[in-house]
């Protein structure tokens, strides 16, 4: 009779209702506030199987007699295959290049009806919707500069860098040639080149600065657990829009080597191509490094581990 009573008590403890974790809050309490007598403690014991379960963090026993402290569970996100990541990166980059370049072509074709604000809003909105739709799959880099900067700071594996950049380049070329067919013979508006009278050195400096701004914001919302990651798409899209308003009339505000490379190949216009292949990468590296230097230190090793497991992407 005593054994059956103990079993019933144990079943009562195990079947106690749990408090579900808040969505988007890793490590939120899943179980908490179990109360029982000494028999319950002996049933679980210090050698509980929860100790060997990697997804559970079991705290030390409470000093209060007969009380089991809260047990937290932080489940990792389901694994995503590299094929899915590369596929999402390809589609996202294709949408971004098609939208940003198409707006510039339409603006040229209609004698400036889109205006600078329209050009900035189009690209900023494209970045925002792609991050919101594919960020949880591939991280939505959409830009070799961002991929290289993340890898340089150990937020992204180097072995995946060539595959990501390859997908971004192919997507850019596909988008550019699709636009060439759709808007033929108008293609000059989609190529980012320095404006007349704007020197190559000035173009390099301006592209470096706006790429720095972009990567500073991207590093904040994608790698810092204190930043509001849920607003990453809005923050990055707004930064792109701001940069285009600043540099659009002078350099085209590329900020992205593949934004320039695909249209340049399709239009056979490689003017100052070296500026748009080097300045964004160097600016992104400096932007990421600067934010990593000024951000607040992590509170403990657990937070650091969580940051590295989710960093380099817009998945929070």
From TrEMBL:
This is Aquaporin NIP6-1. It holds the Pfam family MIP. Signal peptide: none annotated. The keyword Transferase does not apply. GO terms for molecular function: active borate transmembrane transporter activity; channel activity. Keywords: Membrane, Repeat, Transmembrane, Transmembrane helix, Transport. It comes from Acer saccharum. The keyword Cytoplasm does not apply. Belongs to the MIP/aquaporin (TC 1.A.8) family. NIP (TC 1.A.8.12) subfamily. InterPro entries: Aquaporin-like, Aquaporin_transptr, MIP, MIP_CS. Residues 1-33 are annotated as: Disordered. It is a multi-pass membrane protein. The chain crosses the membrane at residues 86-105, 117-140, 161-183, 203-222, 234-253, 273-294. It is found in: Membrane. Residues 1-32 have a biased composition (Low complexity). GO terms for cellular component: membrane.
């Amino acid at each position: 009779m005593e054994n059956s009573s103990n079993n019933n008590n144990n079943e009562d403890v195990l079947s106690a209702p749990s408090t579900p974790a808040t969505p988007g809050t890793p490590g939120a309490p899943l179980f908490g506030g179990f109360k029982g007598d000494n028999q319950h403690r002996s049933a679980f014991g210090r050698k509980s199987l929860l100790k060997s379960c990697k997804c559970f963090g079991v705290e030390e026993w409470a000093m209060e007699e007969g009380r089991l402290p809260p047990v937290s569970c932080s489940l990792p996100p389901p694994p995503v295959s590299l094929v899915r990541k590369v596929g999402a990166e390809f589609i996202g980059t294709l949408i971004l290049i098609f939208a940003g370049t198409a707006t510039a072509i339409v603006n040229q074709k209609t004698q400036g009806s889109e205006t600078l604000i329209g050009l900035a809003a189009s690209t900023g909105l494209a970045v925002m919707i792609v991050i919101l739709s594919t960020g949880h799959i591939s991280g939505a880099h959409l830009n070799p500069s961002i991929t290289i900067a993340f890898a340089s700071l150990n937020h992204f594996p180097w072995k995946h860098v060539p595959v990501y950049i390859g997908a971004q380049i192919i997507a850019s070329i596909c988008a550019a040639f699709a636009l060439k067919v759709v808007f033929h013979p108008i293609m000059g508006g989609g190529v980012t080149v320095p404006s007349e009278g704007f020197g190559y050195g000035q173009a390099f400096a301006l592209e470096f600065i706006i790429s720095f701004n972009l990567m500073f914001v991207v590093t904040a919302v994608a790698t810092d657990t204190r930043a509001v990651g849920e607003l990453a798409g809005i923050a990055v899209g707004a930064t792109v829009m701001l940069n285009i308003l600043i540099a659009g009339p002078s350099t085209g505000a590329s900020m992205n080597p593949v934004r320039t490379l695909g249209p340049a190949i399709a239009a056979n216009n490689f003017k100052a191509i070296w500026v748009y292949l080097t300045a964004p990468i160097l600016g992104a590296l400096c932007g990421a490094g600067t934010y990593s230097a000024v951000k607040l230190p992590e509170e403990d090793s657990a937070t650091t581990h969580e940051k590295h497991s989710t960093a380099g992407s817009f998945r929070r």
